[in-house]
Amino acid sequence: MNIFEYATKNKLRFPFKGIIATEDLYDLNLESLDSIFKALNSQLKQVKEESLLNTKTKEDKELDVKIEIVKYIVNVKLEERDMKIKAKEQKEKKQKILEILSHKQNEALQSKSIDELKEMLKELDN
After folding, report:
1. Which DSSP string corresponds to 15-68?
2. Above 90 in pLDDT, residue 46?
3. Considering 63, 71, 90, 94, which has the largest number of Cβ atoms within 10 A of its Cβ?
4. In angstroms, rounded to a whole number, what is the distance separating the alpha carbons of residues 121 and 113?
5. 7 near 65, Cβ under 8 Å?
6. How far apart are CA 19 and CA 11, in angstroms?
7. What is the pTM of this model?
8. Which DSSP state fits 14?
9. Helix, strand, coil percentages in the chain from 3-state DSSP, rounded to 5
């Protein structure tokens, strides 16, 4: 079963300023998600320390799924952030190239002779 399907079917809630639903995790920033992860990870360590048996309870499975969901969302947000940075860099580079191209076109136009410029004007008027 998919972790998100499990989360919705079992109505998983996460500890953050009270309790929040799975879909609310997407609204949080990376630092808040990290604090939730730390809280869940702390719970996981306590559960593992208290049990002498390796049998997993429903609570153990829920805790594992919660941790996986938070990890997944953090990775998605990191990828989105990286894509935004890359898109911004590409936009800036494109703008710089367009500025240089415009400058070079102006230079080429300025290097034309008076007769060539008059001829170009005459062609534009037609």
Report:
1. ESSSEEEGGGGGGS-HHHHHHHHHHHHHHHHHHHHH-SS-PPPHHHHHHHHHHH
2. no
3. 63
4. 12
5. yes
6. 12
7. 0.72
8. E
9. 80, 5, 15
pLDDT at 54 over 80: no
Q: Which residues of 52-81 are buried (b: 16+ CB within 10 A; e: fewer)?
A: eeeeeeeeeebbbbbbebbeebbeebeeee
pLDDT at 39: 93
| Cβ density class 32-49: b for 16+ within 10 Å, e for less | ebeebbeebeebeeeeee
Residue type, 32: S
* Structure tokens belonging to residue 52: 């002498």
The structure tokens listed for 80 are 């989105």
